[in-house]
Amino acid sequence: MSINWLRQNFFFSLGCLLVATTACSEVKSTSPTTIAANPVPSQIAVSNTTQLRVAKYKGGWDLNLKLAGLDNFSYKTQFTEFTGGNLMVQSINAGAIDLASASEIPPIFAIESKASVKIIATLKGPTVGQVVLVPKDSTAKTIANLKGKKVGYVKATTAHYFLIKMLEKVGLTMKDINAIPLSIPDGLSAFRKGELDAWATYGYSIPQAQKEGARVLESAKDILSGNFVIIASPNAIADPQKKVVIADFLCRLRKSQTWRESNLKQWSKNYATTIDVDESIVYQDAKQGQQQRRQELLPVSDAAIASGQKVADTFFQAGVISTKVDVKQLWDSSFNEDIAKCQ
C-alpha cells in the first residue's frame, strides 16, 4: 500500500471498511465486576449498556481473552477483524472503532494526515521475527551487497523502517536499491518465483521461506524497539462511561498476556488452528520470541514516546513523510494509573 494512498485516504468513507468482518458478544456477569480502579457505582451501572468497538487481528485479542477466561465482559463488546494497523487507524478516525493496536508506524502517518487518534498504552514484545531474507543461491553476504538489487519490502511498516536503518548502516539509501513495495502474500510469491534478490519481511512468512532454502541476511532484532501501541478514539476517551470500560479492557489484555506467557503450548495450538499455520511453526516462533522478551502491556512512558519520535525522524530524513512531526501529541497518559493498578 503506497504512502500517498495512506495520506490521501485517512478520511475515507465507511464503505471502505468492507474488508473487515464483525462479531458481537454480550456476556452478563453473574456477580459484580470491578471494571476500573475504584469506579463509582454509577459508572459500574452505566457500563452494562456501553458498547466498546474493538479492532483486532485474526487470532488476536478476542482469542487471547477467551483462552485466558477473561471474556466475561459486563459491557457489550464488538470485535472487528482487520489486516493491518493502518486500516485500524483509519477506522478510528472515521468513528467506526474505539480501540485498536498497531506498530509505532501507522500513528505517525495519522499526524501528517491530521487524523484523530491517540496512543494510550504500549505492548512490548519480541523483535526476532523481522529480517531481510535472500534466496538459497544468493551470493550476498551483507546488506551492502544489495546495492542495485531488487528488494521487496512492506511499505509503511516495521519492514520499511528496518530496511532503511540497515541500508543506512552501510552508507546506502532506498534509492541505491530497486525497492519494490509488496504485501506479505505478494512478497512471498515473488520471492518463491525468484523475482526478488532480497525481501524485508516479518512473521510466519520467514519460516515458510526458510523451509524452501531461504536464509537470513540480517535480523532487525536489535534495530526495532518491540513497541506496538494501543490506539483509541479521542471521542471514546472523552466519554466517561466508555473510558471506564476501556480501562477494564486494558487490564484484561494485560492479564491475558500473562496467561499466554505461562501457557505458550496451548496458545500456539489454538492460534495455529485459527490462522491456518502449522502448529510447530507457531510454537517455535513463540518460544524464540519469549526467549528474547516476554510480552507485556505497559503504561505510556517517556521512553516509548522517544522511540516513536526516532521512527518518525527516520521516515522524515528518508523522505517517506514530507514534514518533520512531533509524536508527543499522539500520546495520552490518562490510563497510566489504571494500568499500574491492574493485578
TrEMBL record:
Domain named SsuA/THI5-like: residues: 85-216
Lineage: Bacteria, Bacillati, Cyanobacteriota, Cyanophyceae, Nostocales
Native source species: Nostoc sphaeroides CCNUC1
PANTHER family: ALIPHATIC SULFONATES-BINDING PROTEIN-RELATED
Signal peptide per UniProt: 1-25
UniProt cross-references to InterPro entries, sorted A to Z: SsuA/THI5
UniProtKB keywords: Signal
One Pfam family this sequence matches: NMT1
Gene3D superfamilies, A to Z: Periplasmic binding protein-like II
Superkingdom of the organism of origin: Bacteria
Protein name from the UniProt record: SsuA, sulfonate transport system substrate-binding protein
Family annotation (CDD domains): PBP2_SsuA_like_2
Presence of the UniProt keyword Signal in the record: yes
